[in-house]
Amino acid sequence: MRIGYLMNTYPVTSATFIRREIAALEGQGVQITRFAVRAWDQALVDPLDQREATLCTYLLAPGGLRLGLGALREAARNPRGMARALAGAWTLWRNAGRGALLRHIAYLLEAVELKRRSTGLSHIHAHFSTNTAAVALLCARLGGPGYSFTAHGPDEFVDPTASSLAEKIHGARFVVAITHYARTRLALAGGMAAWDKLHVVRCGVDLATLTPAPPPDPDAPLLCIGRLCPQKAQALLVAAMARLRATHPNARLVLIGDGDTRPEVEAAIRAHGLDAQIDLRGWADNATVSAALAQSRALVLPSFAEGLPIVIMEAFARARPVISTYIAGIPELVDDRCGWLVPAGDVDRLAQALAACLDASPDTLAAMGSEGRVRVTAAHDLQTNAAQLRALFARAD
To answer: What is the pTM of this model?
Structure first.
């Protein structure tokens, strides 16, 4: 079985789950050609991501002139396919509000390049239902391989009409949702007639390498991992840490990640006088992240918007409880048996959950971590979930 994987930007430090998914499928005999619209514009810190970049074909790499000439050749050789793709591109542009003509022309040019590069492939699988699914749809209209895509959320579900989500669902051979919540959002966009082509296949982690860690030291820090951005609300986590100071003056927090709101987070740390309590480390490779989880008391993720974060699965695999918010798919994995859930944006409740975690006995923390490990083993084993995907690909082939 030879298929293509299509991403927007790949590899990306904050999306190593795609790289692991590809590796697991290849380990099960699937031959995968990697495509991405563009390369990431930041340095890759993990050696495995650096290797992936050498294996990936970038659709925009030829440049605008060569892509345009390629489209003209495709139109001459394949007029019916180009007519179908042009009609599809027009629909996507119309649904988007007709304010992004150049972007939709780019989708068509990328689709022509993808078709040219996908000779011999039986299927294209896109991650995310955004521009990658649009390119895969147009490629199929041109006569290229059929496609599927994985929808993660949350941004993908904000305006399904403008993103032509229904058209992408209807054109796909099947669609993967990473949670039951995501499946319902896809059904709302595509209609219940599409229900049977919507499949829940959860993201997985490698349980063979992410083993349960020994109990944490009494002074182990809280840990937050993720891109620094408004959706993940790290600035509010700093505010919650400030409220702990009166009762838990020795509480410490490690932040791993980087992004647009780093200046805001740094300013909040300074404003609250927490430079000695909060360690902002930037991006780290997979081995460093795994070690940080083992050395932590619990993972904290106070997000406003998520799908179902991989880092929660990784924390549970390392037998660490999780403090997060009850949004989207998170409650499908986290509850009071393995952590604490609080309303998104409620700093008081977040501070109370942090305090409860810091006050919890070693036995309580161990029981929560053990329950998390059981849950991630049952629902998020990388090899099991890759096998589910492989079966879907085989059925669509």
So the answer is: 0.91
CA 296, CA 315: separation in Å to the nearest integer? 9
Q: Which residues contact 52 (CB under 8 A, 6 or more apart)?
A: 10, 11, 19, 34
Domain hosting residue 314, numbered range:
222-379
Spatial separation of the C-alpha atoms in residues 34 and 27, rounded to whole Å: 15
* End-to-end Cα distance, the chain: 8
CATH number, residue 156: 3.40.50.2000
Say which amino acid occupies 348: D
365 inside domain: yes
* Burial class, 384, CB count within 10 angstroms (exposed 0-12 / middle 13-18 / buried 19+): middle
**Using one digit for the tens of pLDDT, what is the confidence trace for 331-366?**
999 999 999 999 999 999 999 999 999 999 999 999
The structure tokens 């050696």 sit at 47
Evaluate whether residue 210 is within a structural domain. no
Ramachandran category for residue 258: left, alpha or beta (phi over 0 → left; psi -120 to 50 → alpha): beta
Biggest CA-to-CA distance, the chain = 73
The rounded Cα 32 to chain-centroid distance in angstroms is 19
- The domain tally of the chain equals 2
Both 80 and 136 in one domain: the answer is yes
pLDDT digit string (tens) for 124-171? 999 999 999 999 999 999 999 999 999 998 889 999 999 999 999 999
My answer on whether 43 and 174 are in the same domain is: yes
Q: Are residues 46 and 147 in the same domain?
A: yes
